[in-house]
Design goal:
Length: 101
């Protein structure tokens, strides 16, 4: 079990969580930040500093963001966002493709 960064980080990326992590397992990329699931020691120290409540224990992710556990995991070990998002629709594209009202 590890902590997972979910959708609210997209577009914010203020990195408030990074210095809070005692094992430096939060990595920045272009779209968002990602937590290394094997390096995370489940301390929860990153949750409070996040201004948009983007970080959850994997088993407490809201239903609609459950896939972020896989997205965070897939980012590693290559630190590749292409790999992280392979098979998933990035939020900006999801909105673009959403039916018009
Ligand atoms: S739960 Fe702790 S170890 Fe895991 S990412 Fe957050 S601060 Fe780092
Ligand atoms: S503190 Fe929250 S919004 Fe800021 S980079 Fe970390 S996860 Fe993203």
């Amino acid at each position: 079990m590890a902590y997972v960064i979910a959708e609210p980080c997209v577009g914010v990326k203020d990195k408030a969580c990074v210095p809070a992590c005692p094992v430096d397992c939060i990595y920045e990329a272009q779209k968002m930040l990602y937590i290394h699931p094997d390096e995370c020691i489940d301390c929860g120290a990153c949750v409070e500093p996040c201004p948009v409540q983007a970080i959850f224990p994997a088993d407490e992710l809201p239903e609609k963001w459950k896939f972020y556990a896989q997205v965070n995991k897939n980012f590693f070990p290559e630190k590749s966002e292409d790999k992280a998002w392979n098979g998933q629709v990035f939020p900006a594209e999801r909105e673009k493709n959403a039916p018009k009202h």
